[in-house]
Records
---
Amino acid sequence: MKPTTCIAALCAALLLLACPAHAIGFQSERALAAGEVDLRGLLAGLERQRANAIRKRDVAALRHLMDRQYLHVDSRGRVRSKTELLSALERDDFHYRSYQVESAEVQELGGGAALVTGNFTSLQSGAKARPFRGRYVHVWVRQSDGWKNTFHQVTGIRPASTRCQCD
């Protein structure tokens, strides 16, 4: 390999390391408006970034991905604001050994909004940790600095009961 090629490759690698994960793949508003960007692919990528940031407790990446008015409804019905969720992650109130998105379906709602639904699995750290499988709903809104997650809700998926208690 030529020295100039090596230097160029090294500079590119250093640039990628210096950029925060949330900045890689950022799409300009002009490109989005012109239809040059696959919005479904972009939001699916942002979903993967969000899942990785949750698993790694990457508060900086999450702060960038979340809207200022973000609300987080967990599987037990607890509601947290953006600040409350990020503070809990910083305090290490919960930590995931694994957090994996199984599926994500993106639906464009128009007016700069999109709905993402899917399934995920997770396993928190700790002696009493047990696997969790859930269905999630995320609402994303387009803002001047990119797409932001403004709402999150999870419902646990449990095996179907053989006997209906509703009759």
---
Amino acid sequence: MHDTSSESAPSRAGAGTAVIPMAEAVDGRGAVTLLRVVAALACLDTLLQGLLAGMLLNGDLDSIDPHGHNAYVFEFLVSVQVVAAVLLWRRNRRLTWPLKATVGILLVTFTQTYLGLESSLAGHVTLGVALCAMEAILVMRAFSLRVADSSASA
């Protein structure tokens, strides 16, 4: 039995082996780089938020202000992620996952901020963990994008 994921030839992978297709090349080196950098910064910022939240839950009441201020830094970074995803989408209309993912993260971020301001601790902490995971996945997916060689098309 052979893998039929490619119509031209059977896969060299054995039966039952998952075949991961090569990443399709995308245009827009600047947009890809912007998405990668901002997503990585936002991911690191979620870790900082978790640290500040842990300090607060551990009784360090002085960490509430930095946690609150850093929430707005995170919102800004996520907004820039959306801009990067829009720029990438404009160059590659078939590539919709970055835009869908970043808009989803932005909506969860606003919900997260609202729950924090309303002192809904259970929902706020749960969404904080989810945001950290969402950002980590976005970083991995952004770094899996293969940028098309601009010299080959010239």
